[in-house]
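Form 7-S
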Amino acid sequence: MSNAAEQPRSPAPYLRVVRGDPSNEEVAALVTVLTARARATRSAHEAAASGRGARSAWRDRSRLVRRPLTPGPGAWRNSFRSA
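Output:
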């Protein structure tokens, strides 16, 4: 038996710096942004696949309903405002 068979292989790196010398904080910030973007993309694909896509605020009908009027100073002015 050879030593190569006993040694576990390390996985290939997911991220490699090709140019420059970034600090640990810069690399951590980049990894954070890429991870957040990947998770958002994955959840969007899962939502589309399940048929329950993300609801747009433009489709929210509750914004068409006016708040109840309250009596008091300036109430007549507020009655003309829609929201």
